[in-house]
Design goal:
The protein is mostly beta strands and 235 residues long. The chain is built from two helices and 15 strands.
């Protein structure tokens, strides 16, 4: 084989290698999505033209603690018969790890034994999943199960032998509820009489109506923040 042939073959081999690298190269947006943030993952950084790798955990370690363990986004929650669907997309943080679900999650809620009731909870966990925690069936007063460590409460589910309802949906992001609660009892409203109730500016939020003639509530008007889980009790 002549020298020219050898050089030509080597150039061809080098060209094939380069083409293979170019064909397999991907832009950042073409890479698979890491839905669960892994601390051992590395990113490429450059300082004064010098490239280095940096573990994500080192970034997570300096995040202030008040940004941890919360639900940042929560998909709409739908209840159809005994199936709860949490729509995409949801995001939460537990121990500095970010978890993301970009698809719907269906959770089937088992009914109770006849004459019994139960409170279940749905939590977001460290596996990047929504998890159903069943309570204990009772013929008395139901109590929800304890929220497992390193999980976040998403919603409570009230269960009977043939009905299912929900309450106390999670607060999302940096929306906080004042601890103070104020009890207002009103026995004066007569049936057919309009009565306006103003929510307190100090975020008090527990109202009880005991008038037996009360038939309906058309609406509540006020400047106070209405948040998921604020209780309005009607007796």
């Amino acid at each position: 084989m002549s020298f020219e042939s050898i050089v030509t073959q080597q150039l061809t081999d080098i060209t094939n290698v380069i083409n293979g690298i170019n064909n397999n190269a991907k832009k950042t947006e073409d890479l698979p999505i890491q839905n669960t943030l892994i601390g051992d993952s590395k990113i490429r950084i450059s300082t004064n033209g010098v490239s280095e790798s940096l573990e994500l955990q080192k970034i997570l370690d300096i995040i202030p603690s008040d940004l941890q363990n919360k639900i940042n986004k929560l998909g709409r929650i739908l209840l159809v018969t005994n199936t709860i669907t949490i729509e995409a997309s949801s995001e939460w943080v537990i121990n500095n790890i970010i978890y993301i679900i970009n698809s719907n999650t269906d959770i089937v809620i088992p009914y109770t034994t006849p004459t019994y009731t139960r409170i279940d909870i749905i939590v977001a966990n460290e596996l990047g999943q929504f998890e159903l925690i069943q309570g204990i069936e009772t013929t008395g007063i139901e109590t929800p199960p304890f929220i497992p460590q390193n999980t976040l409460l998403v919603i409570e589910v009230i269960v009977s032998e043939n009905t299912i309802s929900t309450r106390n949906q999670a607060i999302v992001g940096n929306i906080y509820i004042s601890k103070k609660e104020k009890l207002i009892t009103d026995n004066t409203v007569l049936s057919g009489t309009d009565q306006f109730i103003t929510l307190e500016s100090d975020e008090s939020g527990f109202y009880t109506f005991t008038n037996p003639g009360l038939q309906s509530i058309a609406g509540i008007i006020g400047n106070s923040t209405i948040y998921a889980g604020k209780e309005i009790t009607i007796q």
